[in-house]
């Protein structure tokens, strides 16, 4: 059960157009090598009535006209039993449609977490607050390491302090343009098995989100958290968790979501454009898995079959075929249910394990 219920104000902001970011928003973050203007690692702040210690410099987005601020990051609660949380905070400095739309996204995700947040692998609501000038969401941050920490790829433009044994496979050559994931060394058989099982578990969690009528649409290697133990043992149980709800309950828009593994239909929006939704999650998860297995991100429109990538293990045919379908430019030709992709990952892991005996 949540520790405190969201306080909703009387103005109906949900009727306004929901746009998660201002066109002219400025982004500040330690990930880009710059300190955010408002908050820093180690600072103690109050969020949704809770005392929190910031664990990292938050990503901070400022509107071009200074009317709103959006912050996201991780923290620890210090006013009760210590636990890690993910937070999203919207501060409205001057009322307007776009500021109201941002508050509406917090409202929508608070309501969604209250409905489905107790399901395995999904974030759980810790606290929430919504007023005319501020919206805050605190959700549990699952323990473990991210997909990026374990399987890569290294994040472009971000230095991560990790022991050598915790780093993913080293990148080969420089990363491409912004949003293009880095090239990596192909995994060993045992690492490929662990990756496939992690991908299958992530697909299962997304399937539960889809069953509730929502899609994540912002899947990246940072959004999937793997258990602290078990990822390196092919026979161990592995249940990933989502760090946050991504763009669930947020109105679809052109250019939405992180550029890394962005689906083609997210680039533009219109009456004659493909629908954004659960098949967008199929594409993003398939692209993450393909990159981890092949060492290179799939080529938009013409991804090479894994069986032609000269990998140090034989790729099961079913896995290769389903992956290529999931990466189709046309969402209508992708699997309609993400569990089809999860089952292919799970079967592929089983077949690779059997072939290695």
Task: Give a brief rundown of this model.
The chain has 357 residues and is an alpha+beta fold. It has helices at 97-116, 147-151, 189-211, 278-294, 317-326, 338-355; strands at 26-28, 44-47, 50-54, 59-62, 68-77, 84-92, 125-130, 134-140, 145-146, 224-226, 241-242. A hairpin with a 5-residue loop joins strand 4 (59-62) and strand 5 (68-77).
| Major sheet details | 8 strands, antiparallel
Low-confidence stretches: 1-24, 29-36, 158-178
Could you report the average pLDDT, rounded to the nearest whole number? Answer: 82
Approximate shape:
globular
Structural class: alpha+beta
Number of helices: 6
Strand segment count: 11
Helix content: 25-40%
In angstroms, what is the radius of gyration? 20 Å
Q: What is the element string, with H for helices and E for strands?
A: EEEEEEHEEEHHEEHHH
How far from one another are the termini?
45 Å
State which percent range the strand residues make up.
15-25%
Tell me the layout of helices and strands.
Elements lengths: L25 E3 L15 E4 L2 E5 L4 E4 L5 E10 L6 E9 L4 H20 L8 E6 L3 E7 L4 E2 H5 L37 H23 L12 E3 L14 E2 L35 H17 L22 H10 L11 H18 L2
Antiparallel strand pairs: 1-4, 2-3, 3-5, 4-5, 5-6, 6-8, 7-8, 9-10, 10-11
Please tell me about this protein's structure:
- The structure is a single chain.
- With about 350 residues, the chain is of the alpha+beta class.
- It has helices at about 95-115, 145-150, 190-210, 280-295, 315-325, 340-355; strands at about 25-30, 45, 50-55, 60, 70-75, 85-90, 125-130, 135-140, 145, 225, 240.
- The strands form two sheets. Strands 1, 2, 3, 4, 5, 6, 7 and 8 form an eight-stranded antiparallel β-sheet that branches.
- Helix 3 runs antiparallel to helix 4 and helix 5 (about 315-325) runs antiparallel to helix 6.
- The longest helix has 23 residues, at about 190-210.
- The model is unreliable at about 1-25, about 30-35 and about 160-180 (pLDDT under 50).
């Amino acid at each position: 059960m949540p520790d405190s219920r969201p306080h909703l104000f009387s103005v109906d902001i949900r009727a306004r157009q929901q746009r998660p970011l201002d066109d002219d928003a400025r982004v500040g973050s330690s990930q880009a090598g710059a300190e955010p203007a408002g908050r820093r690692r180690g600072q103690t702040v109050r969020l949704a009535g809770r005392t929190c210690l910031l664990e990292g410099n938050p990503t901070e987005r400022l509107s071009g006209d200074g009317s709103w601020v959006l912050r996201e990051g991780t923290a620890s609660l210090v006013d009760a039993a210590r636990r890690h949380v993910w937070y999203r905070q919207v501060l409205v400095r001057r009322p307007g449609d776009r500021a109201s739309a941002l508050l509406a996204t917090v409202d929508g995700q608070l309501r969604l977490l209250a409905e489905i947040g107790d399901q395995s692998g999904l974030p759980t609501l810790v606290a929430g607050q919504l007023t005319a000038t501020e919206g805050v969401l605190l959700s549990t941050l699952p323990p473990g390491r991210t997909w990026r920490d374990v399987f890569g790829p290294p994040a472009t433009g971000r230095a991560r302090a990790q022991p050598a044994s915790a780093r993913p496979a080293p990148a080969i050559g420089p990363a491409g343009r912004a949003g293009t994931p880095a090239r990596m060394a192909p995994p060993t058989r045992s690492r490929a098995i662990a990756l496939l099982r992690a991908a299958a578990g992530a697909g299962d969690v997304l399937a539960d989100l889809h069953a509730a009528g929502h899609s994540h649409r912002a899947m990246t290697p940072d959004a999937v958290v793997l258990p602290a133990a078990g990822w390196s043992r092919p026979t161990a149980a592995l249940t990933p968790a989502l760090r946050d709800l991504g763009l669930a309950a947020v109105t679809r828009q052109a250019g939405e979501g992180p550029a890394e593994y962005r689906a083609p239909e997210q680039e533009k929006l219109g009456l004659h454009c493909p629908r954004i939704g659960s098949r967008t999650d199929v594409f993003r998860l398939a692209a993450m898995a393909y990159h981890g297995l092949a060492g290179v991100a799939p080529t938009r429109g013409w991804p090479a079959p894994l069986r032609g990538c000269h990998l140090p293990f034989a790729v099961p045919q079913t896995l290769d075929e389903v992956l290529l379908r999931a990466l189709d430019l046309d969402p209508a030709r992708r699997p309609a249910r993400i569990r089809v992709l999860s089952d292919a990952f799970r079967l592929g892991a089983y077949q690779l394990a059997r072939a290695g005996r």
